[in-house]
Amino acid sequence: MKFAIVLACLLVVTFANEEAEVLKNVAEINVLDFKYAYELSNHNRAEQAGVLKEHDNWVVSGEYEYVAPNGQTVKVVYTADETGYHPKVVEA
Question: What is the DSSP letter of 23?
Answer without folding.
Answer: E
